[in-house]
Amino acid sequence: MSLERFISNALSPWMKEESGAEKDIVLSTRIRFARNLNDYPFPIISSEHSAETLRSFVSKELTESSESFAGSLELLNMEDLSKNEKTMLVEKHLISPHLAERSTAGAVLLNEKESVSLMVNEEDHLRIQCLFPGFQPEEGLRFANELDDWVESKVTYAFDEKRGFLTSCPTNVGTGMRASVMMHLPALVMTKALNRFLPAINQLGFVVRGIYGEGSEALGNLFQISNQTTLGKSEEDIVEDLQGIVLQIIEQEHEARRSVLKTSRIQIEDRIFRSYGILSNSRIIETKEAAKRLSDVKLGIDLDLINDIKGNILNELMILMQPGFLQQYADQPLEAKERDVRRAALIRERMKIEPR
Predict the structure, then answer these.
(1) Which residues of the chain have pLDDT under 50?
(2) Which parts of the sequence belong to the Phosphagen kinase C-terminal domain (predicted)?
(3) Could you give the domains of the chain?
């Protein structure tokens, strides 16, 4: 494997799998563990030499004997990548923006399916991330625990009997786990019902963020729902609570879709097919508008109003139309207006592929 493999396709192999429930609403499930190693200063206070020593140790331990359930892991050092290559890995959710900004000693280990990402020297020594299509919180936790146990057999974690896993940020102390799902909620946004749920979700110890996590926008009616509490609850309890909240949101989204179809069918059809027409014919389109129109088309597919386009077009084009991928395919840096032109051309071509 090489870097080219990880940036040549917008859709990671795991995103193409048919497994996973509720895929019309839940695009993906992610389990992430924050871990630090004993005998090394945490990244926020470590020297460059210490960080490089840790990276060398971790990469050697984890690449030489990758277990079969994870697949072989390939190391990518951040300083070996261009700014745009790192941007593309962020756009695919394979690394975090924080890791992309590291100038030295940052790295990521990726498996062939791109479903496993082990970030080195991010905010913590290790960020162990596992990705799954659709709604699979229990399966995700089982796999992530197996991977975590394997990593722990190679290194010694910083762990306290009372506090649990020790992390750079106090909000991660305890299990060190973030369980999250990416949800497409156009009908709840359309009916303004989502705003009513947000306070209740927050009170239960969960948070709703945009597509790239903390500080990001909810483009294309895509929302990331994850736990905020890591201390005082077991991993199983966190996943169980997340599952309960998400199932309720799924039901509310289904109900909102049925309601708008019943009360405003012609308006919804008009909105969906206008967006389909704009995406199929526009010559210039900005990111926000493209995301909004793609969300409409995805809704049309899920409501069986559009039948000749695959349902994962939203996943694919939300990545392909980002600045990193647009500049990669253009093979040159692009100004914002140039990206708008390229984005429109790319979407036009993609929309024509399946109907023809």
Answers:
(1) 1, 356
(2) 25-256
(3) 1-174 (3.30.590.10), 263-353 (no CATH)
